[in-house]
Every structure is written in structure tokens, then in C-alpha cells.
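Pair request: fold both.
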Amino acid sequence: MRLPSDADISGRDFGAEELRLLLRVVESGALNGTRGSQVKLFEREFAARHGVPYACAVLSGGAACHSAIAAIDPEPGEEVIVSALAGMGVVSAILYQGAVPVFADVDPDTLVMTAETVAPQVSSSTRAIIADHLFGQPCDVESIREAAPGVPIIEDCCHAPLAAVGGKLAGTMGEIAFFHFGQGSHLTTGEGGLAMSSDPHYGRRMVQFAGAGWAADGDDADPLFLAPNYRMSELQGAVARAQLVKLEGRVSRRRRVAEMLTERLTDTEGLTLPVAAKNTAHSYARYPLLVDPGLVPGGADALSDMLKEEGIACTPGSRRKVALESETIAERRTFGESSYPFSLRPDLVYRREDYPDAHRVLDRLLVLPCNEFYTGEHVEFLAEQVRRGVGRLQSASVAS
């Protein structure tokens, strides 16, 4: 059986709505977001959906993250705390703004950072915290805020549209939030992103930064500060508006798919399944489970190889390139031979033993696909292949 995939139309629902708005853009002749209406309308509609006043649509999730960090405007060498499972896209944005990453360990059950893992990393040099809602599991922003009073919190919502904590939507609990609209995202424009804020200073600055430093109202003749041009095009904006209407239904269906998958895998020996933390709503960008190598010989790697033989796209944690384990960080490969901004902080050391739970997670993690177009038959097939793979690995171990 071939599972619907978000890599192609089998797991995506592009159609008349997108085409109608794209045609409107083409007929207008204005493909630039500053000249047209679609990007502006999308920003307003997305912000209104979250009850915040400021939103800035950009070219990618990385651009959105960079815009959010630039709005904070760290001094060179200041620290930004991130999850030990953060990807290079987030860490690169920190480095490009002259700040340095400081990693916080994660909860081994929810896979997200907590107040307890963040608190030891807070120092007088901490300029911001990026709270990562990994795989759609929102972390407890308010408790993290209590662990670091006065430190701005940036929410990484790339996996977590419409996820929530205590009824509060992800993206509305920190000072700034950013989203990714990649091919596999709940809301996709192929590539794209958005940063948003309720704070007028941060909101204005992220718009200026994404617009090459020009004043948001166009009154200044010169750029106000060093900045790139990350503006989203009207073509992306048109697709984004059509996709936004579908977002709630997509998230709801993914949650149901994840529930069905959990029901079918609950009694499988050696697997720890994802569950929404207390008082939260998970959005299930993917379905991450942990494989105990003591009970499933070969662990996540061996099980992944078996599933791929059946055409199931999955990724073991050992093959996920988190920034903490990258050569870029280990070798300080940044700008030429300078190692900047690490050169400003020779005291900063990253040791594997400081993040035991993150590494335990990576050693056991297996990320399964989760798509809103899965039927009960698709879910049963996926669950059966997982159960069968576990059984085969256990039987082979006994036989040997």
C-alpha cells in the first residue's frame, strides 16, 4: 500500500481555491507583495486568527526565525537559549545575528524544553529564549517565563499551528512567534514563513528587518539598519490565503490520525508513543515514537530500515541532523576563518553529557509520517508494519 504523502498531491489538497487567487494575482500584474494585496491580506488574516496585531510574511521558516531574533536585536556574543534538539535553521539565524546558542535539555517524554531544563542555562548574558514546540507538542511557555523573568520568549511554531496550552494558541504566549510553511507543513506555500508579535516595538522591527531595513511606513529615505530582503511574493501569499481556510480541518484530521495510530500501537512492546502533555493540544506535524533497543533489537535504526522496505518514509533520530551534533557547531564554522561570533565567547563549551535526555531521545527516536489524508485503512497498514517490524526484530534476536 502507498501512503498519502505530503511530498506530492496524494497528501496535499491544492485545488480551485489556490488557482482562483493565483489567477487574480497574475491578472493584476503585481507579483511583489509590497505592490499587491494577497500578502497583506494573509498577514491580517493569520494575525487575526491568533488575536495578535502584527504579522510579517516572509520567504521561509528560516527567514521568519531570523526576523524574530533580529526584532530582539541581541548584542554580539549575547546568548539565545534553544532546545538541544533544535535544527540548524534556528541556530544559523542566531549566529547570523551575532548571538550564540546555548542549549537546554528536553523532557524525555514530551521531547520539548521545560522550565527545569531552561533554568540552569539562564545567565546575565541571556538575551532571548526560543521555545520549540517540537513535532506539534507545545511546551509550557508560562513556566519557562517564570524560570527566566524578563527574558523575551520567541515561540518556534513551525510544527505547531493551532497547538495550544490551556486553551492559548501556540504563538500567542511569547513576545514573538515564527511559523514555517514548507512542503510538509500543515499550511504550505512550498517555502514560506511568518513572524508575528503583540508587541509594537518587536512587530515594527521584524517588518523593517524583513524588508531590507526600510521603515515600515515608507517615510524614511534610507534603510534604518543592516537587514536582508525576506519579503514574501504575491504568488506565495495567494496560496497561503487559500491554505489558511483549510488549516483548522487539517489539524483536526491529523489529530484523529494520530489518535488512531496510538490506539493500534498501544500494546506494542518496546515502543513509547507520543501523547499530548497535560492541558495541551498537540498538532502532530509528525508522529514521533521512541524505540527501546533493549526490547527491540537494533532499535530505531533497524525498525526504520524495515519500514522503508515497505515504502514508509520515516527517520530515526540517529540520522536527524540536530545543530548540537553538527560539525558547524563543533568546528565553529561560521564566517571565513573567524569563528565569529563564537570568537567572542571562548568560554562557551558544548558537552554531550550536559544534555543526557536529548541524546537519549535521539538514540531512540523514530519519526513516522502523519498526514491528514490517511484513512483508517492507511493507519492500519502503518500500524501493522510497525508491529510486524518489531516482531521480526525480536524473533531474529531470539533465533540467534
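--- second member of the pair ---
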Amino acid sequence: MKQRKETPTDRGKRPVVLRYGKGAVPLPEGLFPRVEVLAAHPPQVPHSGEERIAQVLARPSGSLPLSRLVARGDRVAVAVSDVTRYSATEKVLPLLLRETDAAGVPRNRVTLFVARGTHRAMTESELRDAIGPEIDSGVRVEQSDPEENLAELGKTTRGTRVLVHRPVMEHDRIVLTGTISFHYFAGFGGGRKALVPGCAGKATAHQTHFRIFRTDGPGKHPLARAGVLAGNPVHEDIVDAVAMASPAFLVNTLLTPGKEIFDVVAGHWQKAHEEGCARYANHFRVGIAKRFPLVIASAGGFPKDINIIQAHKALDNAFQATEPGGVLVLLAECPDGFGSPNFFPWFRFQEPADLERELRENYQIYGQTAHAVLSKTRACKVVLVSTLPPEDVEAMGMIPAASFPDAIRAAKGALGELPVPLVLPDAGYVLPHPAG
């Protein structure tokens, strides 16, 4: 299905709505004489997402069905997404567990491991929302721990020490679930990331993420970016690590910005994921003829704007469409604040080069995110509409705005006028691809 750039005329002058937290903010009519809206052509959504899951599970890619890969006496570990990324887990699990049921595996021999990586642990309420009714079906539920009880599997070809939550490795079969989307330095989310960094130790997460930097000099590796797998050192290091655990099966959803399932991939943990990435990019990588002096973007609402660390992924996408020295307005509520106490202290460095030097000596994952934020705020003006304290927004190099109208006034003040903006209603999903 072809992608295209929409304008209000194309859309029948339907209002442009920007998701913000669990609500939405409309783009005021008459504010601009014209706007350009960058959106993927909506993928065709199947009549039933559950039916599509069942079809794919019956005919997986590069693999036998899960029911033929597990045996009655097996203990099965299923890695599931945490609160920071909606993956339609509650729709996948009933059909996935039907496969283990068919193999004769009792429910009490199936453990759902919340792949929280270095994120905070989920609350009981969040677990119930994410997992759905199957949480009460007799399966076990455990949250991965990046600090304790780790099994060492070896080292990758790049020298990364591979540590995985030991209880996961004590199971006979490992199944990966999640959702595929763009990732600003691993290329794509989903797939292998459910295990590393999802269920990995902190040291492993740090080392795989550190591959973002060049080894032949300062700066970021040119292939460690959104939409790229081949030659991406972060992706390749993670694949090396996950191969040591030899997952038995994978199920990944592909979601619309409205969180509807438009496709599903299942089968071999690497082959099926790569096929899903290609399908996702076919819909959500969108070409643009030029960069714009004013870009207005929504992170996509909850949970893509749950905190600034997650919202940065949308900022990274929207940045690809912003002229150097231009203005990027980002709407991201950030009800969970920064997302980690290890993020904000890095802004004691005010120049990306200084921050990079420190990271190369004393690496932390969220220091890398801070570096990515700072690099953008030094290349253009970022106006952030959020619930974060204004002084903290300023410390990150951004211009705080309490409301969308305030953000537009700030943009006009910075530019002297309001040019035709490019609007990304779903910047957490859509990756602009500038010509040239």
C-alpha cells in the first residue's frame, strides 16, 4: 500500500487532532493559512485482529507451530511488554496459550515474564491491564530483574557480556512477544528486544546500547538509526546475544496509531521479526521532499508519551523533518516524568560533545538518551508541551509550554512568523524520510 502526504484538502478538511496523554488536542482552525500533514496511508485493518493472530500462529514463518515445538513436560517462558509499550498482549495471549494447551502443557508450567529491561516495575493494576484476563488463568507472572539472579550465557562477537534473568533461562522453551515499531538507534523495536534488553541484566543492556557510538572516532554510528537493521551495530549485537538463549518462537503485532492490529508475524524469532519490520516500514516510513522550518508533532498519546524517555522516540522521528535552526513543537504529556532518575542529572553537561566524552568513560543508558535529546535541542529549537516543571524543560535545552497555544506563540516568537508547518499527528509511529 503506497504512502502519501496528506493536506487538509486531501482529508476533506477534517480537523487535525493531536493525541496528548489519554486525551487529544485539535489543531485550531484558521491558525495557519495552510498546513501539511504527514501520515502513513492507513493500513487495511482485518475484520478481527484475533482471527489474524490465529491464522499466523497456524502458519508461522520459518518455524513449526508452537504447539509442535513444546512438549507436555516443558516449562514455557513467555516474555511480554511492560507498561511503556502497548503490544495488544491481552489479544495475543489467549491464542498463544491455546497453542501450549494443545501441546498438553499445564498452565502452571507457563510463566509470563514482564520484559521491563531497566524500566520501573509495573503495579498490580498495570499488570492486569497489560496482560488481560489470562492473568487469572493459572499462569505464573513474574517481572524481570536487571540487577539480581542473572544467568551468564557468554559474550557476543563484539564482546558484550550476556546476562539474562535466570528464571527465564530455567525454562525449557522461550517465547518472545511484543510489537514492531521504529526505534531510534536499534532500527526497530519488537523481536529480539523482548529478551535483550527486556529480560537482560543491566550490564548487558548498557553494553548493547553503547554500540550506538562509532569505534573509529567520536559521534554516533551512521547505521545506528531508525528503520535500519543491516549493518546496525546495536541490532547485530542484540541478535548475537539473543541467539545464545535460542528462543523457540516469536509473536509480534503491528499496530496502527489507534492501537488496532493491522498485521501479525509469528515463527522463527529472527526471520519473522525481519519480515514484520519490512511490512511496518512499508506503511510508516514516509518520504518528504524537504525539511520544514516548523514541525508540529504529537508523540502519539499514552503510553508513547508516558515519560520523556519514551517521548524522545517521537522527537527523534519528527526531528528528521525539521530544518536546521527550525522549530519543533512536541506534545508529550509525560505523566511519569523523566522515566528514570538516571536521566535528568546528565544535563549538567550542556554540550553534546562533553556529554559524549563522559558517556564513553562512564556509560549509562539514559545518559545516551540525554545525549540524543541535547543533540537535537542544539540543532533546532524544541518547544515541549508537557506536565514537566518548566525549569526542568529549560535545563534539557527546550522551551516549556503549558498549552498548545502557548507553544504556537513560542514558535512564532522564535521564527518571527508562522510558516506553513508540517504536522505529524503520530510522530511515535511515522518516520519521515527526507529526499536527498
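Observation on the second member. Residues 4-34+289-434 form a domain with the 2-enoyl-CoA Hydratase; Chain A, domain 1 fold (CATH 3.90.226.30).
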